[in-house]
Specification:
mainly alpha
């Protein structure tokens, strides 16, 4: 986690940071928190389906 981003979000003086900057920082914080787990889940799903397709191709090749 980047403590600088959290520090910018928790500043009491709202004029120091604009709405767009707060939106971007919030988006980055959420992305960093959840991105790794989503990437791992997707990689597992893709690996499963690619392996399944390869097995089906090998089995059908030997049956023909």
């Amino acid at each position: 986690m980047d403590k600088d981003d959290y520090g910018k979000l928790s500043e009491k003086d709202v004029e120091k940071i604009g709405f767009i900057d707060r939106f971007i920082i919030t988006t980055n914080v959420v992305n960093k928190r959840y991105e790794q787990s989503i990437i791992r889940s997707d990689a597992l799903i893709y690996t499963f389906f690619i392996t399944l397709i390869l097995v089906i191709m090998l089995v059908t090749k030997h049956l023909l």
